[in-house]
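User:
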Amino acid sequence: MTQSLTRRRLVPALLLAGLLGGLPGALSGAAAQAYPSRPVKLIVPFPPGGSTDVIARMIAQRLGDALKTPVVVENKPGAGSVLGTDAVAKATADGYTLVVSANPAIAPGPLMRTSMPYDPIRDFTHLALLGTFPNGFVVRAEHPAKTMAEFVAMARARPGSINYASAGLGSAGFLTGELLKQAAGIDMVHVPYKGSGPAITDLLGGQLDGMFESLVTATGYVRGGKLRLLAVSGDARSKTFSDVPALTEVVPGVVGGAWFGISAPARLPANTALRLQAEVQAIVNAPDMQARLGELGMTPVPLVGADFLAFIQTENRKWGPVIKAGKITVE
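Assistant: Predicted structure:
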C-alpha cells in the first residue's frame, strides 16, 4: 500500500521534473522558430546586371540589415520573368523565398499569354510595390523628327511605313507603343527584340525609326549625343529631363512603363507578411534610397499589402482593353 502510494506520488513528480527540466530547451526551440532564423532568398527573374538586378541587390542589402540575416539574391531569368516567378509561387510560404515581382509576370503580362503556370493573384502574397519605371521614346540624333509631336505627325502622314522597337513582345515598351498607336490613331510597325541591346544597336545604325527604352539605359546615349529623347512615358516629366515632355502631354492618356515589387508565396503567415511589408516600406521611404532610385530612373511608390494588390488590379483594368483591341498574344 505504502509502495503503491509512493509510486503514485513519484510519477507526477518525475513528469513535472521532466517538464521543468525540458522548459529551457523548449523555449530555445520556440525562439529558433522566430522569423527570420536563417538566410532569406530573393529571386530576381531577370538576368544579372540590369536595372532590376541592381535595384534588387540594393533592397536585399538593406532588408538583410533590417532582418539581421543575409538576404541572398538569386537570378533566375527565363520566359519573360515567368520562370523565376513560378518558382516562388510553388515555394514554401514561410518568408524565406521572395521574388521581385514585375509587370511581365504579374500584371498585365499574363493577360497576353495563352497559358500560365500560376495564378498571378491567388498564388502570391503581394507584399510591397517598390516603384515604377517610365520608358523614354528615343530616336537617333539625326532623325528628322525633333519633337514627339513631329514624330506622331510623321507616322500619321505615312501609315505603315514608320517602325518602333521594344525590348520584346509583351514588354512595357511594346504595350506603351500599342497604347500610343490606338490613342493617336496611327499605324506604326512594331519590331520586337530579345532585349534592348540589339535594338539600340539597330536604332543607332538607322534600321529603326524609334524605340521605347528604359531611361536607365537610354540616358547615357542621350547625354552622349547619340540618341534624342522625344518623350517620357510616365504621368509626369522626368526630373532628370525636365525639358522633355511626358508622352501624355502630346497624346493625352498615354502613360506606361514597368513596375517592380516584392512578393511571396500565397498563405504567408500574417506576422511574417507584416514584418516584411514594414521593412520594405521603410527602406523605400528612406530619403537616401529615394534619391538613389531616382538616379536609376525609378519613381519610388512604396505601397504595401492591399494597396499593392489594388495597384496590380488597376494595371490589369488599364491594359486589358489595349491588349484586347490590339489582339496581342504571347506564347
